[in-house]
Amino acid sequence: MVNDAQDRIKKIRDQIAQCAMQTGRSDKEIKLVGVSKTRTVEEMLEVIPWVDAVGENRVQEAGAKKEIWPTDVSVEWRLIGQLQSNKVRKALSLFDTLDSIDSLSLARTVERVASEMERSVPVLIEVNTSGEASKAGVAPGEFLELFEEVLNCPHLQLKGFMTIGPLTENETQVRKAFAQLREIRDKAESRAGRLFPVLSMGMSGDFKWAIKEGSTMVRIGTAIFGSR
Ligand SMILES: *Cc1c(COP(=O)(O)O)cnc(C)c1O
User: Fold this and answer.
1) 144-195 residue pLDDT tens
2) In CA terms, which of 17, 101, 187, 209 is 20 to 30 Å from 119?
3) Own/partner long-range contacts of 101-105 (Cβ < 8 Å, ≥24 apart)
4) From ligand 1's centre to the CA of 193, what distance in Å?
5) What's the whole-model pTM score?
């Protein structure tokens, strides 16, 4: 049987490698997260060998999938959608990383619950670089306060930052948003005196631009699984 998703991933990997090369990097520095929201476990299992992680944006959906997930298939589960405080405990039991920390109150809740669960959790801070009100993420003007808070949470391990590019096909505008996240990361590193290597940016429509702006993690749904 021909596995279409597998073919599509191979093409995406080639494009990732090409863009990485153009910026003097190796494709090994760039993780491919298969965004599996709305997809069945069966569809997911077809691609697991070729992705570095799966990304889900709803706690409940991920929970239902993990209930029927085969015990012999292991993959990293990343939460990439907005997290409500009342779902933090469930999220911590389901996900390996929380990529969408976007407010002080969420950071504090995750810290408290992770501490109760005696768990240390890798996180990303999500920044709204597009200025679009509908987009999740902390506003750049409020970033610093959230960043300092996360650094002070002993059960949160800050690995880097995430953003969703603006909804436009204008390359200049999209790349500007990605460049902004990279600059935020650079400032954060010099402020904290340590590295935050993960820049999660780029989706099906804009991952090539994201890589050219320094992305180390692309989140791809449609280009792997087809349209939702
Ligand atoms: C759905 C989603 C994606 C993937 O989008 P595609 O355009 O299907 O590749 C990436 N990141 C987040 C946060 C999403 O919600």
Assistant:
1) 999 999 999 999 999 999 999 999 999 999 999 999 999 999 999 999 999 9
2) 187
3) 101/125, 101/126, 101/146, 101/150, 101/156, 102/126, 102/128, 102/136, 102/137, 102/138, 102/146, 103/138, 103/146, 104/145, 104/146, 104/149
4) 31
5) 0.97
